[in-house]
Structures are given as C-alpha cells and as structure tokens.
C-alpha cells in the first residue's frame, strides 16, 4: 500500500520509491532495501503498477514505475480499509472504564 | 482475476527469461549505485560506501531469488526440477514405468479413439463457411404433421425464386450411385445431384478447375461434372488433364470442369461422394426428375441473411408457403391440391449437417465411451495401487525432505507431477493407437450397401480431450498416494527397519477398497458386454423364414432417377426376363431361379395400408408387399403352410390373388381360415382392387434381421401394380454363390447385352445388416474381458502385497502350530470379502444403469438374469484363482525363514 501511495505521487524508480517513502514519513520510516524489489515485482505482476525503462537524473538507464488505473482503484480500496480498521481500533482503545 | 494476471506474467517471464534476468540485474545494480552515490555525496569514502550499500541491501542472490519467486518463476523452476526428478525415478524402476505407460497408452488411446468418433459424428460442424447460418427446409403437412425433408424440382425452383430471407440457397440429392460402366457388371461411384448455387452457398472454392455456378444449372444445360478430391486422386491420379476430359455416367458422357478441396465430402455426415452433377443434367436420365410434381427428391438448404432472427424466418416461411406450394401442385388433381395447400414450409438449423449416422450411432457411441472410460478407471486403479506400494519404499526420502523444510503441498505437487508425467507419456503413445483403432472401427461400421465415411483425423478438439484426459488421469491416480505419502510422521519413518521395505505400517486397507471398486466396475462391464454379445448371437440364430445361405441375387434394377431403360422396352420386359430366368436355371450349380420385386433385406421395399374383408381389424398402417414369380417360395425355401402357391395360371387376366404371411393371417382373421377371404390395398388414391387369399406362408424377414413382426402380402409378378418392376433374380445354388457371378453375367449378356447388373448374396446382406451389432458385441466383449483381466491383476497385486507384509505374522502362526490350510483360509477370507463387496456394489450399479442398453438388445431384457449370473460367476471364479495364487504362497511360508527375516 505504501509503495502504491509513493508511486501515485509521480513515477519513480525503485530507489526513488525508497527515498520518497522515507521523505514523506519525515524520516520516521525506513524500508528494508532487500524486500523492496520483490514487492515491486509482485505489484507489477498483479497489474497495479507498470514499469517502463527510461533515463534517470544522472542519465543512466533505470526502470520507472507508474500507477495503473487498476492500481489507483486498489490504492483507494486499501486506504479506505486501513482507515476503517484504524477507526475501529481507536474506538476500542479509547473505551473509558465503565463503558464495557 | 489477479491470479490470471499473475499466471500471464509468470508465463511471460519464463518465455523472456534472459531479458528478465538482465533487467533485474540492471535494476538492482542501479539501486545500489544510486545509494553509493548518495553516501559518497554525504562524505563517505567510495570503498566504504560500496561496502555499506551492499551490506544494507542484503545478500544479493537471496534477494534475486525472492524477486524471481514473486514474479512466478519459482513455480516454473520447481516444475522443471520435478519433471527431471520423475524421469530419473522412472529410469531407476523401468519395469514400473513401462507397465504404467503401456497401460495408460492403451486406456487413454481407446478413449481418444471413441471420442474422435463422437467428435466426427456428433460434435463437428460442417467444414463450410459459417455453418451456423445454414438451415434445412422441410415441408410440414398439417394437420397430420407429416414432415418430409425433400422437395420436388418445381417447388425448389419456386422457393428459390420467391424467397427473400436467405442470402443464397442450394438443393441437392445424394448420395446416389452412378454407374461408370457401360453395360455388364455395374461399377458404381458415389454421386450427388447439386443445384447451381450449391458450392457458392457453402463457400467452397475449387482445388482445381472451377465449380458450378447458377448459369450451369439452367434447363437444357451441358452435362458437366465436378469431382471430389479423393476420386480425382484415385481415378485420375490427380492429373490436371482430368479437367476437361469426359466421364461416362450410366452411359451418358459428362465433362469434368473442376475438383473440390480435399476436406469437403458433401453435406451428409458419414457419407462421401465421388462426382457431382448439376440438377439440370438429370433430365437426360429421366425428364420426370425436373418436371414431375410427384417426384420429391431434393433436399434444400438456405443460408440465412445476416440480421434476420429465427422467428422472422419462421414467419416469412409461413407466408411463403401458399404461393410456393401453389406453384408446385399438380394442376389436375384436386385431392392432391388440397394436400399441397395444407402444407407449410419450416426450417431447422443444420450446422452439423443432416446425419442418419448420428441417429443410428449416437447411442452406441455414447455407451462405448462410457465403457472405455470405465476401463481406463480400472487401469488407473491398478497403477494407483502400484504407486501406493512403491511409495512406502520412499518414506525415508520424503521424511528427509520434510525435515529440510518441504511443505506438504510441495511434496504432493511433486508426487502428482510424477503421475501426470506418466499419463502424458502414455497419452502421447496412445494417440497413435487411437488413430489405428478409430480407423478399424469405422471400417467395421461400413457395410457393402451403406458405406460409412468418417474423417477421424485428429483435430484440436480431440487432442485437447486427450490432453485433458491425461492430466485428469494423472491427478486422479496420483492424488491418493501423494496424500498418503506426504502425511508421514518424521520419527516413525526414520526409525523403521528395512525389512518391511521402508517401513510404513502395512495395514493397506486402502488397497483392498480400491480392488473392491475395480471388481464392481468390471462386473458392470462384464454384464454390459455379455448382453451385447448375447444380442448378436441371438440375431445370428434367429429364424429368417427362409434359407439365407447359398442364394445369389442378380439385380437388373435401375435407380429411380434413371428413367426408362431404353435397353429393354417395357412391353418386351416380361419376355426377356423370363428368358433370362430360364437360361440362369440351366447354369450348372443352380438349383432354382425366381424373380421378384425385392428380396429379403433388399434395397427396395413397398408398404401400403390394407383392408381385410372383415368389418374391423387391428392392423398397423403399413403392411409390406412383395411381387414374386411362382418359384420364389421354393427358391427361398419358405414353406407354404396352407392353401397353395402361385402358379403360371395366375395371370393378368385371372382373378387377383395374394399369399400372406402367417402373422398377417393371424392378425387379420384371428384363427379363422384365411383361404378364400379377401383383402384390398389402400394407398394415397384410395382403396384398390380386392385380392383373394389363396395361401399362407411362414413369416420371413423383409427389411432387416431385427424386425420382430413380419406382416407381408405376396402377389404374383404377372398381376403386379402399376410402377412395380420385378427385376431381381434369386438363384438358389448348390455351390458357393459367388462362383456363379461371372457365369450369370455371361448368360444375361447373351440374352440382353448392355443390361446393367449388380450381384450380391443374401448371406452378405445379413452380414451387412448385423455389422453394427457385430461391432458392438466385439468391442463390448473385448472391453468386458479387458476389465476382468485388469481387475484380476489388481486383486493379485494387492493380495500378494499383503501376504508379503504379513510374512512374519504367518511365520509366527505356523510356529505356534497353525496348519498351512488355516493360513490359506485366512488369506482367502480376505479375498472373499473384497470379492463380496465388489460384486454387491457392481450388482447395484448394474441393475440401476443397465436400462440404457435396452434399445440395443434383441430378444433379451436389460436385466437378463442369465447374463448377470454368468458374469458374476465368471468374475468370482477368476477372482478366486487370482487370490489363490498368493494365498498358496502364504501357506508355504517357512516359519524359520520368516522369523529370521526380522
């Protein structure tokens, strides 16, 4: 979900995804480098992101990923589900004594 | 549908493996280098940055493996290694592999053979353009709803010209036999009469030359011909010079203008043709073909215009009925005209082609398919048992794999891959067996009178069926042993000693249940096969009412479309035929000669309603008629039971007489003496003259061997009705009838040269008639026997195995004083139990399902007790023998040797 969100803000190559997630989480979240690419490949195989080869900032060949239409829908669905679940859990945790 | 997308991407990565690897490498390298750049920019020395980046990324190869796995490559890798491993295992135990593959080849091959027949006869669409758009036209005479699927030429032309719902239409007739010879013994080839639009409507392009067009089918046309590809090859060697050359059909020359492609065999499924000629060219044979309003001979098919729904078609045809029928009705017959005006045009989709083959063979083929599927099941069960036994030896290997981290699904997948591989290998071989088998079956379905042509070459659908059958068989075979083996408990397996062969506890009850199932299935097949075999035997032994052996039929019959034979003018025909009969009688080896309109199981028949001179009767609408000379009954050896035979005094001038079959006498007059009573024929035009009954003969077969009731009226040839020609000569011979064919030919030529003759024996006709039953009996008997053998092998295998497993136990028993006999009895008790359960289950299934055979039986009820008892007894006897052999081995166990084993 986080990868999809990162890519939704603009096409990125793998390293760029890593950096962006770190950046928008305010350096609070660091993704383990090794598990990034298997996840990217899985998302591509499922059709939610699409990869094209292009030129990076320093003119080297890199594979850029962008969000597909199906991927956008999937991101929205997952975000909604997450927010709902967070709501539910928050509600439980906020239960004051005597509300049981 | 994400799994579908994943499957697709997985396949893509496999296909473009090298690209994938290259790209993955590039990507990961870029990543690490970017990180290194960032670190260096932050001040770290390059060497350290590189090391840091690599460490943070993690083990490269492991991550690459993860990437491969997430893209679906792992699956493919695992499959490849499973297959390689299976092949290695097969090499190690080649005996098992060979037995399994051979069994599967036969089983799957037999299934494929029958399925390719079913595909050709029942499933395949016509090899023409867009067959779904084709509809066959018929006439429905209300209110009796007599549906006729042929038209007269006048009706066809009227329909073709008036209609506006079909983009094009065709009319045809066939297959007919065209005689290439010019007199003497007939040399028939398959022929079709086709309208000018036949080939264009079907969308057939010529393989050579050109095909008919509308211009070729006008009145007074030139006689042209189109050849089939096969005939072009066989008769003309495929030479281009054939086009433009001439061929003689029934003495009339036709010019060949083209050849159809090899895959086109006409519209009727199961039939082929050699030569096609236009409808207009039938006029030289008999002008009545085109002009007679009573000659219904054309089948009509139309290609529906796109955009018109079936309901619209129906409605339009109803509206068109009156004008078309009015065009085609006979101008001077008010009764007929009323019939015509009451007739409606109807259409039926015909994308698969009209097929009498489908009606006749649909059910037998389905039954064969069921039988052969059951045989395959029994064979699979054998292999499953074998695998179960073998896998107990592999307990250690599987335990080690589990200890190394293999999951149960992974192990099951590998074991099932083994059995699917066996199946696929077996299926590959089986396909060749299937081609041979289906060709043999089709050859046996063909009879002299009614050749069957079925194109059983493999097509996509048949191959897909074979592949699916193989995979399914593999999974069914392998799942049970796989589930069993993968559920092994680690410690037990490692601890087990080698004595019991790798150590699974040898309860193996499962094996005995499998054998019980096999016994049940083979009982079902034995009963089915037994019924079909007995049906055939009963047909062979049935009383024909005449002596079918040693009778040669010499026929001067002309096809209905061939018009008057100019060779013998009508007035002289009787004289000439009598002389021919006289000369034939004088041939050495001929005992007696007669002449008739038709002979038993002949090509012709005549049926009409009759009315006895009593007030009421319970006769069916149609009684058979035959017209015979006085020598007929003596020649055919049909006894005359009462009254007299015809004599030469029964002429056209004397009172009309008839001789009837005994069943007819009983039906008409119920016990009263029929001699002297009268009957009259009533046909389309109403009642005809009264005939006096002068004799009663034994019932004899008229149409085919299976018919149960024979209600026949015989009348003298001299008093035959209008339109009846008695041109079949029956020769009763003292020697083999075939030897008299050329003497007969020579004799007839001397009297009337140029007469076209066909020769056949009654014995051949009987054989032909029973061809289907013979085929079913042979195949069903074969499958029943095969099932029995397979089940017995299974039984033997399982009992043998349990005896080996229990060797120690037997040793102990004998050491403690048990007699060999009691060991024998112990094992046989097992056998008896398996047998009892199997037979019981088999009986239940048989009794419930055997009704589907009823239509194919003769003289037998489906639940015939004799067949059931004999089948069960046969099964029991062979099972007891199969079980006795290992039991005897058990009782001969040397207690010392057995105990020392442990």
Question: Keywords for this structure?
Answer:
heterodimer, A: 100 residues, alpha+beta, Arc Repressor Mutant, subunit A, 3-stranded antiparallel β-sheet, 3 strands, 53% helix, elongated, B: 902 residues, 5 domains, 6-stranded mixed barrel, 28 helices, 23 strands, 15% strand, globular
Structure description:
The complex is a heterodimer of chains A (100) and B (902). In chain A, 28% of the residues are buried. In chain A, strands 1-3-2 form a three-stranded antiparallel β-sheet. In chain A, helix 1 crosses helix 2. Chain A is an alpha+beta fold and 100 residues long. The longest helix of chain A is centred in the last third of the chain and has 25 residues, at 69-93. Helices cover 53% and strands 16% of the residues of chain A. Chain A has one domain: Winged helix-like DNA-binding domain superfamily/Winged helix DNA-binding domain (Arc Repressor Mutant, subunit A, Orthogonal Bundle). Chain A has helices at residues 2-8, 14-24, 36-45, 69-93; strands at 12-13, 49-55, 61-67. Chain B is globular and about 125 Å long. In chain B, the strands form three sheets. In chain B, strands 1, 2, 3, 5, 6, 7, 8, 9, 10, 11 and 12 form an eleven-stranded mixed β-sheet that branches. In chain B, a hairpin with a 2-residue loop joins strand 8 and strand 9. Chain B has five domains: 2-71, no CATH class; 76-124 and 360-502, no CATH class; 131-351, no CATH class; 506-546 and 765-902, no CATH class; 557-754, no CATH class. Classes of the chains: A alpha+beta (100), B alpha+beta (902). The interface between A and B is medium-sized, with 23 and 28 residues.
């Amino acid at each position: 979900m986080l990868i999809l969100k990162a890519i939704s803000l603009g096409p990125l190559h793998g390293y760029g995804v890593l950096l962006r997630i770190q950046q928008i989480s305010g350096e609070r979240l660091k993704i383990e480098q090794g598990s990034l690419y298997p996840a990217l490949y899985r998302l591509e195989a499922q059709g939610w992101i699409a990869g094209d080869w292009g030129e990076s900032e320093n003119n080297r060949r890199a594979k850029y990923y962008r969000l597909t239409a199906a991927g956008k829908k999937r991101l929205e669905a997952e975000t909604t589900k997450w927010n709902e679940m967070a709501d539910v859990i928050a509600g439980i945790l906020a239960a004051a004594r005597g509300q049981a | 549908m994400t799994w579908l997308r994943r499957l697709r991407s997985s396949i893509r990565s496999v296909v473009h493996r090298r690209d994938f690897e290259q790209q993955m490498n590039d990507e990961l390298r870029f990543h690490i280098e970017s990180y290194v750049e960032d670190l260096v920019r932050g001040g770290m020395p390059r060497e350290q940055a590189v090391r840091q980046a690599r460490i943070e990324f993690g083990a490269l190869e492991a991550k690459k493996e993860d990437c491969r796995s997430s893209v679906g490559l792992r699956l493919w890798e695992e499959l490849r290694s499973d297959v390689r491993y299976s092949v290695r295992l097969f090499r190690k135990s080649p005996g098992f592999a060979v037995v399994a593959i051979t069994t599967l080849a036969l089983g799957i091959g037999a299934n494929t053979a029958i399925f390719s027949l079913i595909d050709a006869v029942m499933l395949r669409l016509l090899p023409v353009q867009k067959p779904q758009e084709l509809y066959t036209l018929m006439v429905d005479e209300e209110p009796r709803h007599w549906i006729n699927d042929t038209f007269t030429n006048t009706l066809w032309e009227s329909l073709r010209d008036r209609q506006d719902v079909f983009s094009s239409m065709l009319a045809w007739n066939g297959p007919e036999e065209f005689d290439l010879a010019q007199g003497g013994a007939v040399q028939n080839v398959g022929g079709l009469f086709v309208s000018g639009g036949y080939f264009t409507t079907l969308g057939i392009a010529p393989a050579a030359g050109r095909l008919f067009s509308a211009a070729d089918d006008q009145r007074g046309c030139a006689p042209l011909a189109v050849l089939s590809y096969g005939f072009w090859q066989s008769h003309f060697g495929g030479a281009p010079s054939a086009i433009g050359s001439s061929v003689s059909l029934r003495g009339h020359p036709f010019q060949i203008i083209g050849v159809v492609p090899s895959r086109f065999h006409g519209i009727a499924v199961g039939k082929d043709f050699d030569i096609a000629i236009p409808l207009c060219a039938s006029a030289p044979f008999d002008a009545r073909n085109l002009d007679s309003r009573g000659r219904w001979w054309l089948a009509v098919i139309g290609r529906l215009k796109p955009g018109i729904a079936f309901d619209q078609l129906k409605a339009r045809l109803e509206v068109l009925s009156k004008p078309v029928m009015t065009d085609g009705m006979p101008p001077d017959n008010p009764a007929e005209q009323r019939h015509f005006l009451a007739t409606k045009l109807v259409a039926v989709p015909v994308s698969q082609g009209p097929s009498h083959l489908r009606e006749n063979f649909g059910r037998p083929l389905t039954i064969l398919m069921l039988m052969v599927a059951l045989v395959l099941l029994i064979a699979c069960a054998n292999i499953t048992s074998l695998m179960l036994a073998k896998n107990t030896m592999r307990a250690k290997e599987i335990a080690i794999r589990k200890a190394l981290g293999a999951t149960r699904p992974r192990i099951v997948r590998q074991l099932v891959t083994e059995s699917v591989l066996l199946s696929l290998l077996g299926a590959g071989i089986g396909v060749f067996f299937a081609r041979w088998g289906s060709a043999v079956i089709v050859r046996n379905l063909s009879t002299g009178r009614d050749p069957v042509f079925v194109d059983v070459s493999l097509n996509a659908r048949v191959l897909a069926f074979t592949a699916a059958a193989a995979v399914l068989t593999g999974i069914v075979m392998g799942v049970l042993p796989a589930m069993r083996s993968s559920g092994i408990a680690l410690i037990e397996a490692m601890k087990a000693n080698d004595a019991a062969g790798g150590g699974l506890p040898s309860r193996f009850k499962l094996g005995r249940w499998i054998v019980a199932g096999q016994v049940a299935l083979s009982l079902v097949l034995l009963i089915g096969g037994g019924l079909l075999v007995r049906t055939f035997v009963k047909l062979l032994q049935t009383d024909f009412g005449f002596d079918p052996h040693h009778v040669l039929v010499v026929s001067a019959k002309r096809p209905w479309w061939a018009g008057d034979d100019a060779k013998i003018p009508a007035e002289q025909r009787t004289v000439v035929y009598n002389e021919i009969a006289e000369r034939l009688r004088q041939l050495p080896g001929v005992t007696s000669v007669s002449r008739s309109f038709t002979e038993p199981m002949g090509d012709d028949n005549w049926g009409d309603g009759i009315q006895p001179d009593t007030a009421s009767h319970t006769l069916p609408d149609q009684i058979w008629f035959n017209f015979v000379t006085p020598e007929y009954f003596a020649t055919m050896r049909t006894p005359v039971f009462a009254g007299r035979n015809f004599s030469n005094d029964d002429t056209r001038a004397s009172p009309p007489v008839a001789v009837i079959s005994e069943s007819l006498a009983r039906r008409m007059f119920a016990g009263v003496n029929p001699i002297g009573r009268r009957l009259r024929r009533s046909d389309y035009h109403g009642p005809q003259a009264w005939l006096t009954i002068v004799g009663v003969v034994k019932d004899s077969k008229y149409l085919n061997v299976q018919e149960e009731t024979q209600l026949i009226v015989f009348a003298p040839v001299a008093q035959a009705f209008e339109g009846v020609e008695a041109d079949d000569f029956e020769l009763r011979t003292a020697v083999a009838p075939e030897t008299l064919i050329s003497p007969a030919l020579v004799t007839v030529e001397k009297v009337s040269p140029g007469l076209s003759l066909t020769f056949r024996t009654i014995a051949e006709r009987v054989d032909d008639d029973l061809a289907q039953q013979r085929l079913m009996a042979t195949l069903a008997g074969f499958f029943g026997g095969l099932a029995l053998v397979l089940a017995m092998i299974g039984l033997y295998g399982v009992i043998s195995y349990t005896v080996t497993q229990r060797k120690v136990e037997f040793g102990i028993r004998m050491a403690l004083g048990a007699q060999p006999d009691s060991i024998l009895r112990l094992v046989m008790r097992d056998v008896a139990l398996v047998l009892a359960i199997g037979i019981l289950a088999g009986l239940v299934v048989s009794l419930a399902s055997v009704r589907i055979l009823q239509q194919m039986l003769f003289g037998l009820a489906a639940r015939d007790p004799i067949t059931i008892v004999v089948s069960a007894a046969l099964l029991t006897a062979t099972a007891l023998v199969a079980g006795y052999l290992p039991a005897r081995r058990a009782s001969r166990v040397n207690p010392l040797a057995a105990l020392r084993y442990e």
